[in-house]
Fold this sequence. Notes:
The structure holds 2 protein chains of 2 kinds.
Chain A: E1 5-7, H1 12-22, E2 26-29, H2 35-40, E3 48-51, E4 61-64, E5 68-72, H3 77-81, H4 84-89, H5 91-97, H6 103-106, H7 111-117, H8 124-130, E6 134-139, E7 142-147, E8 152-154, E9 157-158, E10 165-171, E11 178-185, E12 196-204, E13 211-219, E14 226-227, H9 229-235, H10 242-255, H11 266-289
Parallel strand pairs in A: 1-3, 2-3
Antiparallel strand pairs in A: 4-5, 5-10, 6-7, 6-10, 8-9, 11-12, 12-13, 13-14
Chain B: E1 5-6, E2 10-16, E3 19-25, H1 31-38, E4 57-60, E5 63-66, E6 79-81, H2 94-101, H3 111-124, H4 130-136, H5 148-162
Parallel strand pairs in B: 2-6
Antiparallel strand pairs in B: 2-3, 4-5, 4-6
Helix pairs in contact in B: 2-5
Amino acid sequence: MRDIQYAAPRSLDDAVAILSEFGNRARILAGGTDLIVQIREHVRDVDVVVDGKRVSELMELSYTPEGGLTLGAAVPCAVVYQNADVVRAYPGLVDAASIIGGTGIQGRASIGGNLCNSGPAADSIPALIAYSAVARIAGPRGMREVPVEEFCTAPGVNVLQEGELLVSLHVPAPPAHSGGRYLRFIPRNEMDIAEVGAGAFVVLDESGERFVSARVAIGAVAPRPLFVPEAGAALAGQPVNDESLAAAAAAARNAAVPIDDQRGTIEHRKHLAGVLTKRALKGAIDRARA
Amino acid sequence: MSTELLSGKVAISATVNAEPATFVCEPRESLLEVLRDRLGLTGSKEGCNNGNCGACNVMLDGRLVNSCCVLGVECAGSEITSIEGIGGTDGLVPLQQCFLEGAALQCGICTPGFIVAAKALLDQNPNPTEHEIRWWLAGNLCRCTGYDKIIRAVQEAAQQMRG
């Protein structure tokens, strides 16, 4: 690997200071499963690696039924899906965290890192969008918040400016009669990148037969993970039945603007966007009724 | 700014296979390179060097990781267990014995990673299903055996370890 310098700041202020000093020559290191490989393979040109794991805010994992989840940007996937609160309240996030890479990747890779790497096929991002997650960002001008659906702007590119870092993700507490699900389609059985992914979150009424609201996001069908508000609009206030689910699936299919590559064709990806949206919604409904 | 910028040769202290260890490395060196080239622990193998194959699997602070995707300088104060820390002083542990007797290896390059990963599974789940074993080991690639013998070796070892 090319020569690099390494810093392990102990506070957010110190992390922002060092990122500000080195600008785009510095990059935050969380689990390293993307960054270290990118530096080694000359995909990313970085002089200073800033380890975020000694900053307590980046390692926070806390949940309250009122306040929801605060997930530090560097918390490994394995810690996320072994946390009893997350498993109970955010099973759709567990769906995603437990299929990112293999077990050895999950021991290091973080959901925050998955978001900051900003891959169009990133598994955690549609799930985060479905759950209405908000990114908390620290920088030279203080803190700011960005909804996750607005975080990524292009493949590998996001709203983070020089000197800024993702501190944590905040996910609202799920209301009663709600459920979330993430599904992806891959050509193999495991350890692959999504051909299409779909995240869904639904709130049902007390009877469990009607949608109060719903959120759908799809991955690997656009230059960035895509929030599909039209799918939610097609479901809000509607009964839970084949007709409403078909309308949401059509909205996802229409929103998808995929490319052809080795994992699938445009035609197949658009088809999958509809199929996976319907299945993810059904999974979310089952959880909302449980 | 109060953060020190480390470059050149850095001295790192950690616990490696239950013994205190101090090594010198550059920030660009992976934990895998540190284990093999600085500490002489050559059991961990470099397969893909990008996190896909699992041949370099070690335990880092209680979690399974690909040591090619960890920097040595990150490991200050950490506890690391490599394949060398798994075998007993008086012979092979059941997992190793079952791999040997079940012919769960041919060329052997992937074997240390499989043993470290399988031990991590059995430590938290002494009675995994075949599906759970296959899912857990999906990040470990073997190009010789076709996996069936590896899965059977882990099942056999699990049974022996449960007694």
